[in-house]
Every structure is written in structure tokens, then in C-alpha cells.
Amino acid sequence: MTRTEFWQGNTACAEGALAAGCRFFGGYPITPSTEVAEHMAAKLPKMNGVFIQMEDEIAGIASVIGASWTGMRAMTATSGPGFSLMMENIGYAAMTETPCVIVNVQRGGPSTGQPTMAAQGDMMQCRFGSHGDYSIIALCPASVQEMYELTAKAFNLADRFRVPVFLMADEVIGHMREKITIPDTVEQVPRRELVKGTLPFKPESNLVPGFPQFGKGFGVHVTGLTHDERGYPCATNPKLHANLVQRLVDKVELSRHDIADYDVINPDAEQVFIAYGAPVRTVQQVIHDDQDQDAGLLRLRIVWPFPENALKEFKNARRFLVPEMNLGQVAREIERHAKVPVISLPKLGGELHTPSELKAALEAGG
Amino acid sequence: MSFDDWYRQDRLPHIYCAGCGNGTIINCTLAAVDQMGWTKEETVFVSGIGCSSRAPGYIVTDSLHTTHGRAIAFATGVKMANRDLNVVVFTGDGDLAAIGGNHFIHACRRNIDLTVVCMNNQIYGMTGGQGSPTTPKGCLSSTTPYGCVEAPFDLCELAIAAGANYVSRWTSYHVKELEKAVKVGLETPGFSFIEALVQCPTAFGRRNKFKQVADHVEYLRAHSLLKAKRDRMLEQGETVPDDMYVVGELARRNRPALGVKL
Question: Domains plus CATH for chain B?
């Protein structure tokens, strides 16, 4: 039996993680994500899980990566300043192909910025924040329901592609309370184990190697240095490094249309909003109010890897309108793929776009 | 079984310079691990960045060679997620006491069931000999070309003050004592910290008037002061010279520990 609750977004995120089998949380308190940690602290000890409050966010993500190597589904949650601290070990997770889930309930930046106000200013940081080339997956919830569902989905993607997966929420969605329907069960796709006798970093046909869990006798050496398929450091071989990094990117990017998760609303529209996270809510209101159905919406649940084929669903599109709570971070990515003008509708300050602001943008393109 | 059985033979030869003290410490640690009767499947080595941190790569067990200073934070995740694993951390003075200082003291405070072996060569060896938080006053390094003016950390006092259950210090001269100390560390529930002063002929000895490796090892021997003797000196009101390293078992207690096997 499904059941209905009235939950805060951050609670839904924690519950979605637990339903997905997450049994390890390592983190550090930070507004506006703290309720995720608090909920995990209350629940995990009763479920044979582990909650540990670490000394900083660097240690938080480090503990998550360590836990993940024991085969556990593991996560952390943070916001801008903590996210910046995590970048070092996020690169380590990418290089070592460690599945993990990082929740970022975004607030206004840069620096300490606006702790209690919403933003989407970390969208480029989650894609490119650590040094070197790599690829990740980023999901953007626009409701409390999606805080639950997309968090659960994040664990399956992390295990399937062996990458850090980001739930890029924002303060509005994290702190909003609304009705949520809890399903009976949540699909769990387990990590594929390494076939004994296979080299630990030799990829299978999907470019992802099987997982050699610690404690199972694989005797695997895991290093952030450039490594060969045995996992051994091999940091001065140019060809080996190029192949490894290319594979880390390709295993995500070549599957981007398979990973993609979006809704197409009013595909015949000439003016099309593209939105993710909280701004989706304002666009939905504008479309609801728009009797003539002039406006369309491409509503992205996964922003990275960017699903550029989704743009082709709008055959009549004259303009793409991209409301974001930043200065146009994803708008520029859309511009790289779009054949028609892309209008960035940035909003800083921590408040949502108002319906009248978006209606004005539609009318300007009348 | 002997310590030799724990080496990953296909990774040898290692990267350590001729005369380096790290191999001695790794041998002592593996000998102690071997005496514990632990299996390779249930043992994990974790490290950060630096010469000492390359050790896990030469060991046949599962191992995690992580980011600079963060080894203990990663090891905390491994141990908390699976208490049945025996988790040993290799680190160095720069890794542990500079960039990783905060993780070190918090792991001591938590008294988490890890054994941390620190190869303290008092210098950044891998990057070519920069001063570290344990470089003695007056010593030369590439970033203290006029002599180090800062006071060094006493890593063991730090561990004791922060709450570790077991703390001990020896040098690369004291092979038998060190092996025994690591074994006690492995046996003791909670956080065990073993500091081993080691010679680094390439980055430290060369700049600091140790023409021969043996000269440096002899210096470490001659400047070791047994804890019992230090305590007697203090009792008698004598001054302990500040160029002496107090060696021996410096703390052994039974504070409640985190992450102990159930």
C-alpha cells in the first residue's frame, strides 16, 4: 500500500535514500541541507546503518567513499561552502570510480553568501568543480516528491556507472513542505560485482568495470593516481592516462540519452521554457495560466550529462527561454546545442522568478 | 607466513630511495600484522599522499591510496561501514600533521578502532625536501634555507591529548621494539598511534650533515630517551634536553572506543 505524507523536501530526500538501501551517511551540518543529516542521524542507527558527523565536509565525503568500497550505499549532504570543500575528494571518487551520492541543497553564493535563500549557482561547479577531466551525473528535483524519487534514482545511477551522482536541489525545494506519495517499494539495481579473475579496472562492454568490494578477497589497490587495469599506479604513461580519462568521460557521456530524464510539455509551442529545479514551478504556473498554450516546457530532471536530443522534441521552437537562479550557467550549455536563440532569464537574490516576470519574457518574444 | 607474504611481488621494486627508512617500518608493521593471524581478506591498508603513503600499493590486501592528508577520514568510513575489517593507516609527518592534522585529532577524540603508523622523516620527501610540521628548529630544507624557525609538533603528545587509546614512539633503529609496539597497537581496541622516526637521506640527511645513512640512524638512536628514564629525570628535577626524542609506550588506556568489532 502506498501512503501519503506531508513532508519537507529534505526529509523526503533522506527517506528516499533509506528506501534505496543507503545505510551510510557521513557529513557535516550546513544550512539549508542540515535536515537531511538530522533525519539520517535519527533513522540509520535503528536500521543497522551508520551515521557519522565528521570534522568537516572534506572528511564527510572521504568517509562516504571509504564506506562505498565496503559495498555500502553511502551518501552525504551539503550546501555551497561545504560543496567547495568536497571538490578534492569528488575528483578522487571520479578517478577511482567510486559510487556515491552527494546532495547539494543550493544556497546563494559565492562564499558564505545567503545561507537561508535558494540558488542554482553550483550547477557548473558540480559538473566541473574538481580538477582534470571527468564526467558526473546531476539530478534536479522540483518537488518534494522528486526529492524522494530522484534521491533513490541517484543511487542506482551511481552504482550502474560508478560515478559520483549529485542531487542538485535548492533551498526552496529542500525546505518546502508538500504532499508526497510514498511507494511500496523502490527499485534497487545492485552494483555489478567484479568477475573473479578479471583485472579490477578492466571495463566491461559498457565501459564500466565490475566492482571489487573490500573484504571479499579481491585484493584490489585503489589509487587516485593514473592507474592501469590492475589498479597499479602508472602516472607517466601518456597513452594510458589519455585512455583512462577518456573512458571516465565516455562511460557517462556516451550513455547520456539513456540516462536522460525529462518531460516535454506542449511540443508544438514556438516559445519553449527550459527549466530544472525550483524555477520549474513558476513555469508550470505560467503554462497553466496561458489559455492559448503558446508556451512549451522542457523540464529537465537530469541536467548532466546534458540531453541535447531533448531540444529536437520542439520542432516549432523559435526561442528557448531559460529561467535559472544563477547568471545563466545551463543556458550557455543549451546555447551550444540549440539552432534557435536561447534567452537566459537569470535571477539572483534567493527568490523564485515570479509568473509575471516569465510572462513578460514570453510577451517580449511575442 | 611471514611479513614477506604480505608483499605484492609484482609491484616490486619499490620507489623508495637507497637508504630510506620507510621499508624498515613497513616490514615491522607487516610482521606485527602477520603475528596477529589476520587474513589478507579481512585486512585493509589506507594511506594519503607522500612517500610513506605509497606503502599500501606494495601490499596484497585491499588498499586505498587516497588524497593528501585524508587517509584517516577515508579509513573512518571503511571501518564504520564494516567493523569486521582490520584497518591500518600508513602516513607521514606532512600528510598527518600538516594537511591532515584535523582528521588526526578528531580520530583520536573518537577513539575509532584504527591503527595509524606514521613514518616521520621530518621533511616532505616526495616533493623534494620542503620543511614539515616536524622539521626540528634550525634544520635546513628547501623552504627553510636559513634554518627552520618554527617549533615542531610532538605528534605523540598531540595524540595523547586528543584521546587515543594507545600511543608509542620508536625509530628506524629500534626494529624489535617497533614491531612489538605496532602489535600492541593492533591488539588495542580504539585509536592506536605509532610514530616511527625515520631517516630520509635524499631530502633530509643530505642537507643536515648526515653524510652517511648510518650516521643519521645513529643520531636517532643516540637522541632517543626511554620514557622510563625521562620520567626518572623529571622526578629528580633534571632538565630533559630538547633535542631528545622520548621513545617507548607513551599511553595505553581503555577509553570507550568507536567502531570496534562486535
Answer: 17-252 (3.40.50.970)
Question: What average pLDDT score do residues A36-47 get?
Answer: 98
Quote the pLDDT of residue A287: 95
Q: What is the pLDDT of residues A148-165, one digit of tens each?
A: 999 999 999 999 999 999
pLDDT at A366: 76
DSSP-based three-state secondary structure for A342: strand
Per-residue pLDDT tens for B88-123?
Answer: 999 999 999 999 999 999 999 999 999 999 999 999
- In terms of CA atoms, which chain B residue is nearest residue A49? B81
Task: Check A69 against B64: CB less than 8 A apart.
Answer: yes
**Residue A324 confidence (pLDDT) above 90:** yes
> For chain A, what is the total number of helices (H) and then of strands (E)?
12, 16
For A64, the closest chain B residue by CA position comes to B77
* pLDDT at A291 (0 to 100): 75
For residue A45, the distance in angstroms to the closest alpha carbon of chain B comes to 12
CB atoms within 10 A of CB A323: 27
Whether residue A28 lies within 8 A of chain B, CB to CB, comes out as: no
Task: Look at A59 and B73 and tell me if their CB atoms are within 8 Å.
Answer: yes
Q: How many contacts, defined by CB atoms under 8 Å, are there between A and B?
A: 122
A5 to chain B nearest CA, in Å? 31
* Residue A215 in contact with partner chain B when CB distance is under 8 A: yes
- Determine the pLDDT at residue A290: 83
Which domains does chain A carry? 3-182 (3.40.50.970), 260-364 (3.40.50.920)
In angstroms, rounded to a whole number, what is the distance separating the alpha carbons of residues A326 and A304?
Answer: 16
Taking every pair of Cα atoms in chain A, the longest distance, rounded to a whole number of angstroms, is: 66
Nearest CA-CA distance, residue A118 and chain B, Å: 30
What long-range pairs does B209-214 form, CB within 8 A, spacing at least 24? B213/B19
A41 near B CB under 8 A: no
Burial annotation B31-69 (CB, 10 A radius, 16+ → b, else e): bbbbbeebebebbbbbbbbbbbbbbbbbbbbbbbbbbbb
Can you tell me the distance from the alpha carbon of A164 to that of A68, in angstroms, rounded to the nearest whole number?
A: 11
Residues of chain B with pLDDT under 50: none
Q: How far apart are CA A94 and CA A213, in angstroms?
A: 17
For chain B, which residues lie within 8 Å of any Cβ of chain A, measuring from their own Cβ?
8, 11, 40-42, 44, 46, 56-57, 60-67, 70, 73-82, 84-85, 102-103, 106
Beta-bridged to residue A178, according to DSSP, are A7
pTM: 0.98
What CA–CA distance (Å, rounded) separates A117 from A108?
Answer: 6
From the list B201, B207, B54, B51, the residue with the least C-alpha distance to B127 is B51
